[in-house]
Every structure is written in C-alpha cells, then in structure tokens.
Amino acid sequence: MHSLLRRQINRFFGDASRLPDELKKLIEAIDVTYHQADIDRAMTERSLDIASQEMLAQNQLLAEELKSRQSAESQLMYLTNYDELTGLVNRNLLHDRLKHALANAQRHQHQLVIVTLGLDHFKVINDSLGPSVGNELLRIIADRLSACVRGGDTVARLGGDEFALVLTEQNETYPHDDNRSKEQGSITFYPHLIEILQRILAAVSRPMVLAQQELEVTCSVGVSQYPQDGNDPDTLLMNANAALSSAKQLGRNIYQFYTSDLSTRLNEKLTMQSRLRLALEREEFVLHYQPQVDLRTGHIVGLEALVRWNQPDIGMVSPGHFIGLAEETGLIIPIGAWVIRTACAQCKAWHDQGIGKFRIAVNLSVRQFGQADLLHFVSEVLTQTGLDPQYLEIELTESLVMTDVERSIDILRGLKALGVQLSIDDFGTGYSSLSYLKRFPIDVLKIDQSFVRDIEKSDDAAIVKAIISMAHSLGMHVIAEGVETEAQCKFLRHNQCDEIQGFLFSRGLPKEEVEHLLRKKKQLPHRLLYFSNHARTVLLVDDDVNILSAFKYLLRNDNYHILTAVSGQVGIELLAQHQVDVIVSDQNMSGMSGVEFVHFVKNKYPESVRIMLSGSADLSSVINAVNEGAIYQFMTKPWDDVQLKHHISEAFMHKELADENRRLYLEIQSKQFSIVKDRRQSNGSLP
Question: Which Pfam families does the protein's record reference (predicted)?
Fold first, then answer.
C-alpha cells in the first residue's frame, strides 16, 4: 500500500486491517492512483530537468552567437572605416573626418590641406617581386606617412598605391592680409607646408630592403587647400587628385598644387575620353599615309599609316592629343586593331590596282604588344586581307621591347615567323643597348627626328653616323624620319642612310591624295640621290662682283653649270639647293671668311672639292685649313687663267673618281649587308 494512503487511513480509521472488506477494493483503486501519481510526478520532474538542461544549452548557444555577432559587427565596423592591410583610415572614414575638419576650420577660420599621394611605378614592383612584397611595401609607406604628421592629422589609404592626408592647420588662419602666407602664382600656401611636403617625399623615398633587395620608391603628390580650392570633401579630394595627375605627367617624384587650369584640363580630358569611346562606333577615325623614299632610286618604297581622329565638333585631331589618353584607358587596343586591319586592306587594294609594290608600316602600342593573342591577331589580319606578309612592317619603340627582353624576343621571333618586317621606331631616344639589339630580329632602324632636326650640330651628326654604321653592320636598313630640308637629306645620303621620311618629300596624306601621288610615281629630285646624273657644277664665291664676272667669262666654254655667290652665307644657301661638285672661294670676304666657309662646307658637304684663292699676306689660317683637309687646292691672287682652269678641271676629275670609288664601295657594302642579313635570319638573330 502506498505510504501516503496508509498514513491517511491510520489517521482516520486506526488500523487499516479493521476496515470492512467492501472498502478494500476502493482502497486498492486509491492505492493504484497514488502510485500512478508518483510515476507521473517522476516523469514530469524528469521532463522539466531535461527541458531545463536544453534551455541552458540553448541560452549558451544564443550567448555565443550574440558574442560572435557582436565580434562580426565590430569587425565590419572596423573594415567599414579602416584599411585592413595598413590599419589606416579608409576612404569612408576619411570622408567623415574631412567633413568634421572642414566644419572646425570654417568655425575657427583655419586653413585645411588635403594631400593625395601615389607611389611611382608601384605596379612594376608588385608584378616583379610579387603581391606579398607589394603589401609589405604599402605597410612600410603607411608607417612612414603616419610618422610625418601630427596627432590631430589624418592619414588614409584610398586603395591600391594611393594615400591621402588631411593636415589641420590649427595655428594658421586662412589668408586675408596675413604676412605669414605667400603667393606663388594663384596658389596660396604657408611656409611650413612646403617643409611638410618635402618631408613626405623624403620619407617615402628612403631606401628599404624587401625580398633581399634594396628598393628606393618615390611618390607623386597633389595638394588642394581649404578655402581657396573648395569647401566640401568631394571637391577638395577631386582637386587634390587633379594636382596628383599633373605631378605624374610632369615626371613624378614631385608635388603639385591645385590650380584652376588643372580643373579645366581635367574636364577637357573627361570630355575627350567620353568622345573617344564613341569614335570607333561612329567611324570617326581615318588613316593618313606618309611616304618612305629610297635614297638610291628616289622611289616610294613604303608608307607609314598615321591615325587621325576626325571629330565632328572640333575637326581633325592629331595623334598627340588622343593617343596618350587611349593608352591610359585601354581604348588603344581596339583603335590599334582597326589601324592594322584598315592599313593592310588598303595596301592590298593598291597592290591589286597595280599602283606599285610597297610596304605598309603600322605602329604597335605597349598595350597591343602585351596582348596574349597578338601573333594570332596579326596572322588573322594577313589572312583576311590577303596581304603578303613581307609588305607589312610593324614599328615598335625601344622602351617597349626593352621592358621584358626575353618575352620581347619570343614575340618578335613569332612575328618574324609570320614573314612580316620589324622596325625600331625613334631609335636613339631610349635604351639603345647594342647587347640586346643584336638579339632582336629587327629589319629596320628609324632614326628619331630629334637627331635629324639638329643634324648640323656636331653631336647629333656623330650620333646619326654611328647609328647608320651600326645598323648596317648588323644587317639592318636605316630610315631617317623628320627630314625637312635638302641639306639634311644630303647629309644622310652622304652617310649612306637608306631611306628618308618627312616633309621634304611629303607630309602624311589622306588616302585619295597619297593614291594620286603614287599614280604620278613622284620621286625625289635626282640631285638628292646617291648617284645622280647632273651637269658638272661649280660654285664661285667672292664678294667682288667684278671677279665673279671674270670667273664666269673664263669658264664660259667649259660646259660647266656655273653658280655665283657674293658671300659665304649666299654660298651656303645655294649648296642647300644644288648638287655642287667644285667650289672656288676667295679668302678675304666681309662677314664670313673663305676659311670659315670651306670649314662649314667640309662638315656639311664633304664630297665637294674646294679651291681657295687669296691675295692676303697672312696665309697661316689658309695653311691650317689645307692641313685639316678643308682645302683641296690653294692659289694666290692674281691667278693665272690657264692654271686656274687646269686646277678646276683636275678637281672635277678628282670628284668623279671619288664618286666612282664610293659607288664601288657601296656595291660591296650592299653585298656584305645582304650576307649579314641572311646570316641573322638563319641564326634567329642570335650572336
């Protein structure tokens, strides 16, 4: 019996055994109920215990989840406001801090300076040494920038290799008549600001050792100031970035202050970029073609394709105004592809019309050269247009092929395997490394026009001679670009340059005009060619017109083409216009003396034969000129007519013999050139 029931019976009835039998069944039923209640209570308690444990476990999970969520929110808050790599303020928090700094500067009339900074050539380091080294470099730069500013200033990383600094000028009020400020053009700055900027440049450029290499990284800096350059965060940052772009364009490793014309240029650039994106779709690009002429035959042997932009609003735009922007934005790739396709198709069309067989030269940009499918693209263009590969010449710059020499060699060999011609453009302005140049399968060197333009200067003349000699020894042809005068052409011809290109023969022409020029078979004048058929020409130089008349009368029956000049300067002008074989000059002339004149002629027209006449008792300068080879023959005044005529006749024979020797030399050199070129091609252009 259940203990509780027994106690109740004992309480009311005494001994349970005395209960009547008829109550036993009731007692048993009650007993069962009590036992069942115990079982139910035990089960309930067990359930409550289990539920309690489960609730505790769930509460623990909720607590851990809450903690994790709080940590995530904290991390998210950090990442929202700070750069994960460097720990600096990021663009988001920078904007907020700049807003508060501006409010404070406005309230207290303080100056505020915003500096944006970009590392120079960071991509080269990142690509060559790897991202981990690049990241470590960014952390070092972040620490150095933080050390350059005060506690109240802000250093932020904007992304990539760009940083920004907000310099609060708490001790300076912005200028009215304050003598502490200085004016630099339209830029107002405080004396210590320049010191801070110089300190930043110096701190960034301090050498560091990364990946077991000593690196020295420079930076470019742009500066905008409140209140003169803007009064809100976006404007000030935009203007500082405009100044930063200017610093990079001016050569890097410098700082630039924002000025109003920078904003104008930036807006023009953005407008130009927008128009440039639509130019291809609207077919606004056209090609002009500039002839390349052989100095032996005078014939056009090539055309360089020059892209022009026919912009509806502003007319024809030269490449110098949009090629750089196209490179920067990547638009040069579709533009360059269009140029190659159009030029090859046009060249093939001219060949099919029977106008002539000549090559077409196209320039390859840095981005195009870096494309993985370059060889496939060029092959595809040749196949689609039907142009024989030997008539396509691809022009590359020195700096382009020298960036990654081994890769460049592989690409150049691939292009040569297609059968195209290769040339190095603007040679002499880049690396000019002979050790690498001899490994490249190059067919043509183009002498940069800067050397041709100043070819009268001794240094440039020596450089041009060296380039021609070197190129020929390596089995390469030479083209001089930017040839504008006959004097330049004659110098190049005398020094065995193969071809010229420039305004002397023709500027770049539209398709219709160059086609007309090709059909006319326009050539260089015979007097400018290597060996031209021209009348024997003598130049007489004397400031006495009576003596010139006597000269002409003396030579009237000798079948010479006679030119006369009353001064050395006039003689120089005639030499630029005519091919002169023999020069007879007086020594004593006003202005330029005879010795000065023949020295100039010797340097500029060394193939001419020079005779000097003089009645002066002081012959020391004349003797020196004879010893230096500036004078072939010297005669005193008054002269003997028969003797003078004999010396002139002898000078013509000397000139013609020298011309014949030069002709034979060039023939030998041409054969040697062919042998060297064949050897380079068979050896894959390796030494």
Answer: EAL, GGDEF, Response_reg
DSSP codes joined into one string, 606-651: TTSEEEEEE--S--HHHHHHHHTTS-SEEEESSPPHHHHHHHHHHH
In a domain? residue 526: no
Most confident of 144-148, 209-213, 271-275: 144-148
Q: How far is it, in rounded angstroms, from Cα 540 to Cα 537? A: 10
> pLDDT band at residue 430, thresholds of 50, 70 and 90?
low
Is residue 62 situated within a structural domain?
no
Residues 234 and 353 in one domain: no
Same domain, 383 and 496: yes
Q: What is the CA 278 to chain-centroid distance, rounded?
A: 24
Verdict on whether the full-model pTM lies above 0.70? no
Q: Which two tokens stand for residue 215?
A: 């690196």
Q: Is the dihedral of CA 321, 324, 329, 331 positive or negative?
A: positive
- Rounded to 5 degrees, what angle do the CA atoms 39, 40, 45 make? 100
Say which residues have a Cβ less than 8 Å from residue 183's Cβ, sequence separation at least 6.
none
**Does residue 298 sit in the same domain as residue 241?**
no
pLDDT tens figures, 55-105: 888 888 888 888 877 776 766 666 688 888 998 989 889 999 999 999 988
SS3 400: helix
Mean pLDDT of 427-434: 62
Q: What is the CATH number of the domain that holds 158?
A: 3.30.70.270
Q: What is the CATH number of the domain that holds 638?
A: 3.40.50.2300
Strand, helix or coil for residue 379: helix
Q: Are the C-beta atoms of 464 and 492 separated by less than 8 Å? A: yes
Which residue segment(s) compose the domain that 15 sits in?
Answer: 3-50
Let me know: does 254 contact 159? Beta carbons within 8 Å.
no
* Sheet containing 162-173: order of strands: 154-159, 162-173, 110-119, 219-226, 255-257
DSSP 181-215: -EEETTEEE-HHHHHHHHHHHHHHTS-EEETTEEE
How many domains does the structure of the chain reveal?
Answer: 4
The predicted-structure confidence for 116-127, as pLDDT tens digits, reads as follows: 999 998 888 887
The answer to whether residue 426 sits within a structural domain is yes
Rounded CA gap, 171 and 46, in Å? 75
Domain assignment present for residue 76? The answer is no
What is the reported pLDDT for 180? 37
How far is residue 629's CA from residue 81's CA, in Å, rounded to a whole number?
Answer: 79
Q: Do 260 and 484 touch, CB atoms closer than 8 A?
A: no
Helix or strand run (H / E) with residue 450: helix 449-453
Instruction: Summarize pLDDT for 291-341 with one digit per residue, the tens.
Output: 999 998 899 999 999 999 998 877 888 888 788 878 877 888 999 999 999
**Is the peptide bond between 227 and the residue preceding it cis, with omega within 30 degrees of 0?**
yes
How many whole angstroms separate alpha carbon 496 and alpha carbon 13?
146
